[in-house]
# Entry
Amino acid sequence: MVQRVLTDDTVYCIDTSALINLWREPYAPDIFPGIRKDIEGLVRDGRLVAPSHVYAELEVRDDDLHDWAKAHKRMFRRLDEDDLWKVSRILRQFPTLIDAGKDTEDADPFLIALAMDRGWCVVTSERSGGARGRPRIPNVCRHFGLRCIGLMDLFREQGWRYDRG
# Structure
């Protein structure tokens, strides 16, 4: 079981799916304007990161989220040689984590590798399980003992509330 350790310096490694949900539905900024400010605070503090492969996935669509990602490029980290070794280890154990038919490189194993051994928490909108038994980010995180949470968990951990006041 993954132990939950919360400090005010927890670093969150966020997946493409979670970023998309923060910009579109269900947490669209026109409905929840405070979310963007709070997310940017975590980025500014160096507490919200993602592998550069997430940025590449966001580049596919030229939209507000991609514009935001360009303006916050420092949150996107390049993986070092040790991280790349971890990616190959992840894919040896979970070869169907990625979709081999995609035109772009799938960010999932890079996300997990970046969080491994750093004590970072993975944030994703994916749920355990998956179509045709394909593992999802939460399944792989659990296997490697990584803490993996959804957006609502992130909001709760940070004490963020979005109400009409």
